[in-house]
Design brief:
The protein is α/β, with parallel strands linked by helices. It has eight helices and 13 strands. A nine-stranded mixed β-sheet has the order 2-4-5-6-7-10-11-12-13, with no helix packed on it. It has a two-stranded parallel ribbon with strand order 1-3.
């Protein structure tokens, strides 16, 4: 960048930071994905045993293109993917991207694959009044193709480690209602999942806490809109409009109101009050998890955690350790020579069927609920 453009950029940034100029900056790429156009032209690389893609904060790869990059790696042993599922202004584009990824996933199932890690990032709405749009294509009945594809992929014969942080998912990830064949995970040792607060239909896994006001602003350290209050912001809007009208810049940027953009997709205002698990949605997910665990003869560690980030809530996480495996947390006490199942779910409890399935699948299972 030469001196003239550097000075202009510095001036523009100062105006933006002061609220007098609302540029798009990196946000111009929010709805843009990088796509691989001619993957059959890629050479076959038999000596490559690992693949990891990196994503920049503001430039993302089309999910199925990430898979296409691995299509000519026949001896892949580890696959780590970082992808974006955070398209919120064009629901159909997000639905199609998830579906395309699901359809392409079976083509890269490799007998040599041992380790799989997927980060399929979606940001939960910070306004818990918000109704998230469905992530499923408008079919009848709606089908969670992505969770089903990952369910099938997790049964890759030599896979030993399967981890997803985070994902918008459903019970189909563990155990579909109508599996074509009886699922089996012959060599899987680790199965870790972090799930979002909303499911693929857009329904919340968590209900409002009656002890908390749903209309009070809550702090959320992971979000920083860098904007003043609505009252303060009104003057800034006038200033920015005047600036655009009087500007002689022939490349005048498109205006961008960060607060209003955040409001439209449920990220503002901060209303964090959903902390209680929904029996109707959580128990089916947990029953499916328990059924899957019973069909993993070599399972050593299994965990399920939610993306809840409310410091005033108990959170939601479940950890299973096989006999001989050490616990990760000091509060997870118990005989290490026995299988253990720890619940960090506050005062909430799953239904009896969930615990019954776990105990039937793991003889001598020690179950402990940990409340803080």
């Amino acid at each position: 960048m030469d001196g003239r453009h550097r000075d202009k950029y510095k001036e523009d940034r100062e105006l933006s930071d002061s609220g007098k100029r609302h540029d798009l900056w990196y946000r111009r790429y929010e709805h843009s994905k990088l796509r691989l156009l001619d993957h059959p032209a890629l050479p076959s690389l038999s000596r490559v045993s690992g693949f990891r893609n990196y994503t920049f904060d503001h430039r993302h790869l089309e999910p199925y293109s990430a898979l296409q990059l691995t299509s000519n790696l026949p001896n892949l042993e580890s696959l780590y993917l970082t992808l974006d599922d955070n398209e919120k202004k064009d629901p159909h584009a997000r639905q199609q991207a998830r579906h395309d990824f699901a359809m392409y996933l079976p083509t890269i199932s490799s007998p040599s694959l041992q380790r799989f890690l997927l980060k399929y990032y979606y940001k939960d709405p910070s306004n818990h009044h918000f109704s998230a749009p469905s992530a499923l294509l408008p079919e009848t009945p709606p089908v969670d193709h992505l969770s089903r594809a990952l369910h099938k992929f997790s049964q890759t014969p030599n896979l030993t480690s399967f981890k997803i942080y985070p994902i918008v998912t459903s019970p189909d990830l563990y155990w579909p209602e109508d599996p074509a064949t009886s699922p089996s995970w012959p060599n899987l040792r680790e199965f870790d999942v972090e799930f979002n607060m909303v499911n693929p239909n857009g329904d919340w896994y968590f209900l409002p806490d009656p002890m908390r006001s749903p209309d009070s602003d809550q702090s959320d350290n992971s979000d920083d809109l860098n904007t003043p209050s609505d009252e303060e912001n009104s003057d800034d809007d006038d200033i920015s409009l005047d600036f655009y009208e009087s500007s002689s810049d022939s490349f005048r940027p498109d205006p961008y109101n960060e607060r209003e953009e955040a409001r439209a997709i449920g990220n503002y205002p901060f209303r964090l009050f959903r902390t209680l698990p929904s029996d109707a949605l959580m128990n089916p997910l947990l029953r499916a998890m328990a059924r899957a665990a019973a069909h993993m003869p070599k399972l050593q560690i299994m965990s399920l955690q939610s993306t809840t980030r409310d410091p005033n809530a108990a959170g939601f996480s479940i950890y299973f350790y096989a006999a001989g495996q050490r616990s990760k947390l000091k509060t997870q006490s118990g005989d290490p020579d026995k299988p253990r199942l720890f619940w960090h779910v506050g005062a909430w409890r799953p239904d009896d069927e969930v615990l019954k399935i776990w105990r039937e699948g793991r003889e001598g299972l020690h179950v402990k609920f940990i409340e803080r």
